[in-house]
Specification:
By secondary structure, the chain is α/β, with parallel strands linked by helices. Helix content is 35%, strand content 14%.
Length: 407
């Protein structure tokens, strides 16, 4: 039998838990959707509002280095993702960055007309593809293929392949280096969505010869709700032309010239004025994560997942749960997912048992594994509470079946 107490006592990441704001008794398994708040964030935001904004006012664009925050924080994120300095900027939302990365890739493949993705990709990725198709008047086509067939769909017309490295439902991990190699052999570029990768698994963008990548700042980076996202462009692609040509991406934004002249390097991927409050919160989360050993984060993540699946095994046969995630550690991200016909109601009932997970249609319960603040004891207790919810049929109430606007 696994000695849970020993695992927690021997955990080198255990001290990080005290640096997050977590209510005693609650088990938070939704960090793959919204990360917990670092305790230092409130103080940092108070300083930005009270001192940098309140006292420094407009002088803080230079004095507090607001104007260069996207590049500064981007360089920090680069250390987490195997990128070089000046290859990442923290800016805008994931959706907007997908648009910029796709159009930049299209500008580098002007003789090709297809954007390819998989059928089960996160919807916003495909929505942005469809928006580009509509805006292009049909010159560019958005196409999807079944996940197992997407590489086989790399025809001579494909300009760019858009894939998520860690699938948002199942947690399946794609081999970034192999997929990128296959795409390049077909003459296509790749845009990687790292929203469920950054801060959760080791990523080596340059080691994989990646072209472009995007991701959000509010999951494993713990940047807060709606935190700015980030965009990676390999230095060899800094001559690309992303369609959104905003003034902070101009070579001389404060010359207020009539015509757009893109800045050199990664700065051309900026657009509007940097969101200083959001960037300040994001930087706290990134700095905290940079203190951790990512190899240890990954090791613990997989151990938490193995423990979860082992403990859930008896409940699968007894209550009808079906494992959706991969058992193979190399193919599993930092979450465990199960399918159940009453998945939504069970997730809602678990909240009354002080377990916060989430649900993805049509029937998937997702349990995010965030090693910096999750304990092994939390996993064992979660499974006990799931068993209690099922044994007592606590989920079988009409109000638990009513879908909320946000799930």
């Amino acid at each position: 039998m696994t000695d849970i107490a020993h695992l927690d006592r021997a955990d080198p990441l255990a001290p990080f838990r005290e640096r997050f704001q977590l209510r005693e008794g609650m088990i938070y398994l939704d960090g793959n959707s919204l990360g917990a708040a670092p305790k230092a964030t409130a103080g940092r935001l108070a300083d930005v509002v009270g001192q940098e904004w309140g006292e420094g006012l407009i002088t803080s664009w230079l004095g507090a280095e607001w104007s260069t925050a996207p590049q500064r924080i981007g360089d920090k994120i680069a250390r987490l993702l195997g990128a070089d300095p000046c290859e990442i900027v923290a800016t805008d939302s994931t959706s907007i960055n997908i648009f910029k990365a796709l159009t930049a890739a299209l500008s580098l493949r002007p003789d090709r007309s297809l954007i390819l993705s998989e059928t089960t990709n996160f919807p916003t990725d495909v929505y942005m593809m469809q928006g580009i198709e509509a805006f292009s008047g049909g010159r560019v086509k958005a196409v999807t293929a079944a996940p197992d067939n997407v590489l086989g769909a790399l025809t001579d017309d494909v300009a760019v392949l858009l894939l998520t490295q860690v699938h948002y439902k199942s947690g399946l991990v794609r081999d970034m280096a192999e997929v990128t190699r296959r795409a390049h052999e077909a003459g296509a570029l790749v845009v990687w969505d790292l929203s469920h990768s950054a801060g959760a698994i080791p990523v080596d963008l340059n080691g994989a010869n990646a072209d472009f990548a995007v991701g959000c700042g509010y999951k494993y980076l713990n940047g807060g709700p709606g935190a700015p996202a980030y965009l990676f462009a390999a230095s060899r692609h800094h001559g690309a032309a992303p369609v959104l040509s905003g003034w902070f991406g101009h070579a001389r934004p404060f010359d207020f010239e009539e015509d757009y002249d893109p800045a050199a390097g990664i700065t051309r991927f900026l657009c509007g004025t940097p969101p200083v409050l959001g960037l300040s919160a994001l930087e706290v989360g990134v700095d905290l994560l940079l203190e951790a050993d990512m190899a240890e984060v990954r090791r613990k993540s997989l151990a938490l997942g193995d423990l979860f699946m082992e403990a859930m095994e008896p409940l699968c046969g007894r209550y009808g749960f079906t494992l959706v995630s991969e058992r193979d550690p190399a193919r599993r991200g930092s979450q465990v997912a199960y399918a159940h016909p009453h998945g939504y109601a069970i997730v809602q009932a678990l909240k009354e048992f002080d377990v916060v997970a989430d649900f993805r249609t049509p029937d998937v319960l997702r349990f995010g594994l965030t090693p910096l603040y999750l304990r092994y004891a939390d996993i064992a207790e979660t499974v006990r509470r799931i068993a209690a919810v099922c044994e007592t049929r606590a989920w079988d109430k009409p109000h638990y079946r009513q879908r909320a606007a946000v799930t």
